[in-house]
């Protein structure tokens, strides 16, 4: 169980997407009147864009699988998905917390600027692509091209990583526990520092995971592609 | 004087020799700003058939000719209403200074039209000065955030740009100053080469879902534009319409850029003239003319260009390079305290001259338009720039309505293809209008 922000006590408002429309749900979530209640979503049935564009400290709990862009552009809210998530979960998140209790499809946390995304299971291709400052903790493994062009933030991978991990990284840092099929252009393994161990322990704790920090390796940018010159690696 | 026996090679002329020598010395391709310099068929190759005995003109200075333009009527609950069909194209803060973005917003607001953000996020200057601001959603997502999505008047999902369809953004390190770096979440001074594909969707079926996400976030209020660089325009426009766009923006190969490889600028994409015809054909094929609005850009310069674009079926145009030139780009002077100051020395130090400069990528713009340098940017006074730009766009709009009246139209949107003929076989084929003096339309429709 992830050690995320506890669900606030208060009235519960329930939506059933077999009866209520997505528009009604999101309109309600965007309205100011929802700041002090917990919202439960039943029968999401893979619908797209559930709970996207939230802008206040809501607690939203979704019971079932969600489609694309669940909790997209989240700001301040805590969204828990009791199932699997389709592509782009928590894309462009600014703050708050998103917890996927199952698996996540492609581009989880893409371009996220802030907040914490926890995925208990595996994440597919391009997890953390274009990351801009958020933290992502994946309990399982990640697919190829994860952290592609990631600019800032941290990604913790408790399982393995497929090919081209960290391709064209900027300042984001990856901590990976398992095997790495291959590193991408300009990514390299670096020694873990005490600051890395502290950061990693904090992130694992926030995600409710109990792995040893000493089991992880650090991947960061070699910064050889930061400047454009004839001898630079032109792999992209 | 060239000796008569010295014959220059057509294939290896001086420009080509210079290109090869420079490549051999540097091992790098050339990067530059602005748009294609080669001659391609364009709006100059079309002419209007104004009213005569068979058509009835409007009095040029007396009778009303509407230029009102509404964009985003398909799904959005708050379409954009513009006083003129001439909008300002997306150009980034980073490529341009914040003072320039401010000037663009002021001029656009005075004329009742829209301006557009670019790759690098929305600045407070442009939001404050622009009554109607289109917010671009680009592959890089630099500075992209939901607060700005909510305060935008329209959202433009950028698939590609006419100067570099298929290519990502580029901003060389000398322009990545602390503010630009902070807005883009990049290290200062890094040579930024951004993504060419969006991070969270990969094809037209995904785009359907992405557009719906943006509609949900904005509670279906805000028009969604989709912008494509002109390549396979017929199919791309159909796919954008299928994906749910309210407005499709097509950017032809003459479109400008702040920094792109020359090989891209001159050799990738199709001319605006050909792109516009294909885009209109696509909307007609779907029976969506009027429901989905079409904005064309890429080398639009004058009221004649705008009138021809509207006659061919565009609902509006977007202008970039013309706008920068109005602000002073390629001028030999800049204005400081009301005085014209020569910039010739600065052009010379860049190895160029007014009329030839395309050194936007260097950040050393002699007239303070495409720079992040704290000294150079002061060469553009936002108030002066806004006044010049307002004058220019006002002139373009007056030219447009003058032509429309001469063609007997009470509304510039009533201009039609039947009002046009072509000067060349190539332009007749691309635009799908008859060669002047004939009934011959060469080529055929792509449909």
Describe this structure in words.
The complex is a heterodimer of chains A (about 240) and B (about 450). By secondary structure, chain A is mainly β. Chain A has helices at about 20-30, 195-205; strands at about 10-15, 40, 60-65, 80, 95-100, 115-120, 130-140, 150-155, 175, 185-190, 215-220. In chain A, about 10% of the residues lie in helices and about 20% in strands. An eleven-stranded mixed β-sheet of chain A has the order 1-2-3-4-5-6-7-8-9-11-10, with helices on one face. Chain A is elongated. The mean pLDDT of chain A is about 90. Chain B has one domain (about 45-325, about 380-430): Alpha-Beta Barrel (TIM Barrel), CATH 3.20.20.70. In chain B, the strands form six sheets. An eight-stranded parallel β-sheet of chain B has the order 5-15-14-12-11-8-7-6. In chain B, helix 7 crosses helix 9, helix 10 (about 305-310) crosses helix 13 (about 380-405) and helix 11 crosses helix 13 (about 380-405). The longest helix of chain B has 25 residues, at about 380-405. The model of chain B has no long low-confidence stretch (mean pLDDT about 95).
């Amino acid at each position: 169980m992830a050690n995320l922000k506890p669900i606030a006590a208060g009235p519960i408002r329930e939506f059933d997407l077999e009866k209520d429309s997505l528009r009604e749900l999101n309109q309600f979530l965007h309205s100011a009147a929802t700041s002090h209640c917990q919202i439960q979503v039943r029968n999401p049935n893979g619908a797209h864009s559930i709970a996207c564009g939230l802008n206040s400290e809501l607690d939203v709990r979704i019971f079932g699988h969600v489609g694309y862009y669940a909790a997209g552009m989240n700001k301040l809210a805590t969204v828990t998905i009791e199932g699997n998530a389709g592509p782009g979960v928590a894309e462009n998140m600014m703050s708050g917390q998103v917890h996927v209790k199952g698996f996540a499809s492609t581009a989880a946390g893409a371009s996220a600027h802030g907040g914490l995304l926890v995925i208990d299971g595996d994440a597919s291709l391009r997890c953390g692509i274009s990351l801009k400052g958020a933290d992502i903790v994946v309990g399982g493994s990640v697919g190829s091209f994860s952290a592609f062009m990631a600019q800032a933030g941290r990604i913790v991978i408790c399982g393995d990583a497929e090919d081209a991990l960290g391709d064209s990284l900027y300042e984001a840092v990856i901590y990976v526990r398992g095997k790495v099929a291959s590193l991408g252009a300009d990514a390299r393994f670096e020694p873990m520092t005490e600051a890395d161990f502290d950061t990693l322990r904090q992130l694992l704790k926030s995600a409710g995971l109990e792995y040893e920090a000493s089991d992880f390796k650090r991947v960061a940018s070699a910064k050889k592609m930061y400047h454009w010159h004839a001898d630079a690696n032109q792999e992209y | 004087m060239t000796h008569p026996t010295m014959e220059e090679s057509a294939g290896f002329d001086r420009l080509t020799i210079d290109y090869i020598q420079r490549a051999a010395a540097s091992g790098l391709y050339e990067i530059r700003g602005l748009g294609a310099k080669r001659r391609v068929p364009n709006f100059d190759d079309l002419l209007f058939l104004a009213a005569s005995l068979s058509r009835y003109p409007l009095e040029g200075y007396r009778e009303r000719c509407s230029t009102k333009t509404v964009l985003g009527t398909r799904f959005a609950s708050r379409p954009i209403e513009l006083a003129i069909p001439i909008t300002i194209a997306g150009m980034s803060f980073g490529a341009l200074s914040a003072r320039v973005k401010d000037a663009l917003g002021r001029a656009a607001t005075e004329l009742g039209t829209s301006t557009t953000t670019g790759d690098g996020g929305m600045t407070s200057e442009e939001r404050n000065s622009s009554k109607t601001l289109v917010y671009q959603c680009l592959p890089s997502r630099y500075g992209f955030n939901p607060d700005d999505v909510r305060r935008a008047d329209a959202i433009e999902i950028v698939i590609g740009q006419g100067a570099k369809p298929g290519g990502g953004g580029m901003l060389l390190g000398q322009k990545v100053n602390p503010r630009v770096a902070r807005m883009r979440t990049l290290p200062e001074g890094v040579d930024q080469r951004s993504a060419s594909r969006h991070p969270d969707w990969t094809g037209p079926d995904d785009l359907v879902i992405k557009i719906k996400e943006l509609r949900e976030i904005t509670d279906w209020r805000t028009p969604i534009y989709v912008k494509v660089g002109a390549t396979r325009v017929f199919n791309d426009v159909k796919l954008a319409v299928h994906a749910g766009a309210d407005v499709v923006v097509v950017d032809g190969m003459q479109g400008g850029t702040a920094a792109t490889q020359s090989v891209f600028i001159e050799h990738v994409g199709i001319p605006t003239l050909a792109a516009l015809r294909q885009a209109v054909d696509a909307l007609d094929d779907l029976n969506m003319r009027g429901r989905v609005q079409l904005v064309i850009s890429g080398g639009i310069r004058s009221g004649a260009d705008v009138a021809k674009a509207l006659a061919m079926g565009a609902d509006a145009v977007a202008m970039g390079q013309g706008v920068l030139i109005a602000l002073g780009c390629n001028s030999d002077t800049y204005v400081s305290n009301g005085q014209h100051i020569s910039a010739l020395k600065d052009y010379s130090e860049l190895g160029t001259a007014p009329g030839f400069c395309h050194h936007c990528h260097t950040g050393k713009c002699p007239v303070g338009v495409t720079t992040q340098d704290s000294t150079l940017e002061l060469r553009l006074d936002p108030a002066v720039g806004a006044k010049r730009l307002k004058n220019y766009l006002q002139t373009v709009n007056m030219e447009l309505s003058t032509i429309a009246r001469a063609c007997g139209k009470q509304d510039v949107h009533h201009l039609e293809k039947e009002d046009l003929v072509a000067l060349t076989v190539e332009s007749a084929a691309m635009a799908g209008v008859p060669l002047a003096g004939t009934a011959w339309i060469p080529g055929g429709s792509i449909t």
